[in-house]
Amino acid sequence: MSTLRGTGVAPGIAVGRALVMERDAVPVFRLSLTAEQAEAEVHRLEEALLASREQLTLIKDRLSQEVGAPHAYIFDAHLLMLEDPLLRDRAVTIVREERVNAEWALRSVSESLHLLFSHFSDAYLRERSTDLDDVIGRVLLNLRGREDAPALSRLPAPVVLVAQDLTPSEAAELDWERVLAIVTDVGSSTYHTAIIARSLGLPAVAGLKDATRRIPAGSEVVVDGTRGEVVVDPSGSTLQTFRAAQEEYRQEEERLRGTRALPAQTLDGAAVSLEANVEFPEEASTARLHGAEGIGLFRSEYLLGRGLRWPNEEHQLDVYRRLLEQMHPHPVTVRTWDVGLEALGPSGPSSPNPALGERALRLLHRSREPFKVQLRALLRAGHHGPVRIMFPFLSGASDLRTALALLEEARAELRADGLDFRPDVPVGLNLEVPSAAVIADLLAPEVDFFSVGTNDLIQFLLAVDRTDPRVSGLYQPLHPAVLRVLGQVARAARAHEIPLSVCGEMAGQPMQAVLLVGLGFRALSMAPTAIPRVKAALRAVRLEDARSLATRCLALPTHQEILELVRRELPLEAQTAEARGRAEA
Amino acid sequence: MIRRELRIRNRLGLHARAAARFVHTAGRFRARVTAGREGKVMDGKSILGILLLAASQGSAVEVTVDGPDEEQAMAALVALVEGGFGEEP
């Protein structure tokens, strides 16, 4: 048993077998089989060995012809390894006796042989283990190539995912129904995987540095996302303790979900609309379960999937329509493509600093079509329900007008095509670039709503990369500059009478949410699982008190003083909600 | 059964190519072949076994052959090893 400590980025407890994802390698699963399945698995292994043999023979023959037989010798060695009783017979025995899948058996064989090779004193001989890797890697690939092989999109059993990092494309491919928890080497709470985990209600621990090396594939692990701990090979009594805690957490969640029917309002009756941020259409049910009154942010770029292919108009229309149906009668706000240059193809140009480079609508001058197709699909979706269009990453009125002109073009096309659509779908601005936030009063007359993307806004306003652990401590949502800009945006929205919301992480932190309401925000969009806690906090405060608290905070010069004041002033119930949600902080 | 101690002469020792040739040669005969060094005894028809002997230049390997064609098998293996696997010494 060993315990790894990281940052708990999504609360909850899960127990399961580790699926360790290694970069550029075939992920290896451990499956328990019946005796009958094990026999079929032996057959699968033999087929893969045979396929590997054929490939190696071909390579060897070609090489012998092209450069002469002596140079092809290494493939002789590889062919012999394939047939070697220490590899082949041993793997077959493991499949039969331990009743596990072929991938797992090969991995065990490889590990025990590596151990033997690693004791060699002669460097040249020690390196022969790379030949072994080559051979086993080939067999694994041949196992994977078969249709019955496990894959990320087809997980054979529930797993705890252990990865260095989870790329958005992997996230899009994953079979989330079978994921129990997420553990990553990198990351912090504002990091992408954390956001996904929270929206799906999965416990997650990030920033473990070397979890992928320290957690053996297939081992049993306990993930405590509330405390930021991962226990590998837990003892019986440890497991019991965690199971009890898991049950307690489940009951607590149940209780919080019980608040679903309660109105989201302050003690003195001011209504606040609590909405959900989602990436996958499947999350709509999680959102409803937690009492979301709409989707305040749908990160549409997940529709691009692993291959970064633009989805066509009909497919998009279908997704948006399904979201609207599931959230009926509440609105669904779709953020238009927030992608970088990579979405234009792997051979295209690259950016030295993608976060500040050609991104989102800045790509319009290179490729108009994908953006226009999305706007067409959204206008058509408007015919089916209250969809809202949100433009991300605009820095001022001129790029806003370029985007609005494209929208007008989409409307004209739809009219010419004779398709049903709603021409006046509300159009809003995702305020995340500081320049746009600062001139919110000038932009308000040109749009129907504002939604502040606090994650990027804070990052750019404070010039802090929140994913860089060396400076992430400087990422301070309660920095006076942040509160001041938020206050200005709220004033501008009120003066022009347009709806205003926050769709960043701040909205999901009970304490910060109270402050946002005090500043004038009446809609907050967050990870679905954060809604009950935020609701509990809001129901414990009076709007008047939240307002005066916000006013006093605006006069303080440091993040620390603001934090202390808020902690001191918040009523007990709001404090409790905050403490429960702390794992999400 | 015949037992002989053979000295590895080639510079790279029993590396992949030499091991492959050893296993190929042993595989031509019906006799059971083992190769041993420093207490380890490996199947002479397993390349991983031969590699795991980690026999570098100058080390001694004890070879046994046991079976109907053991004499021919030993002769072939001795020729191969003593001849430095046809490589530069």
Walkthrough of the structure:
- The complex is a heterodimer of chains A (585) and B (89).
- With 585 residues, chain A is an alpha/beta fold.
- Chain A is 46% helix and 13% strand.
- Chain A folds into three domains: 2-26 and 157-254, Glucose Oxidase, domain 1; 35-144, Enzyme I, Chain A, domain 2 (Orthogonal Bundle), CATH 1.10.274.10; 268-584, Phosphoenolpyruvate-binding domains (TIM Barrel, Alpha-Beta Barrel).
- Chain A has an eight-stranded mixed sheet. Chain A has an eight-stranded parallel barrel with strand order 9-10-11-12-13-14-15-16, surrounded by six helices.
- The longest helix of chain A has 33 residues, at 35-67.
- Chain B has one domain (2-83): HPr-like (Histidine-containing Protein, Chain: A, 2-Layer Sandwich).
- Chains A and B meet through helix 2 and helix 4 of A and helix 1 and helix 2 of B.
Spans where pLDDT lies below 50 across 5 or more residues of chain A: none
Number of strands of chain A: 16
Which sequence of strands runs across the widest sheet of chain A? Answer: 1-8-7-3-4-5-6-2
Which of globular, elongated, flat, extended, rod-shaped describes the shape of chain A? globular
- CATH homologous superfamily label of chain B: HPr-like
Q: Write down the overall mean pLDDT of chain B.
A: 90
Class from secondary-structure proportions of chain B: alpha+beta
Strand content of chain A: 5-15%
The share of residues in helices of chain A is 40-55%
Percentage of residues assigned to helices of chain B: 25-40%
* Gap from first CA to last CA of chain A: 28 Å
Order of strands across the biggest sheet of chain B?
1-4-2-3
Instruction: Write down the Rg of chain A.
Output: 27 Å
Biggest interface between protein chains, with counts per chain? A-B, 21 and 19 residues
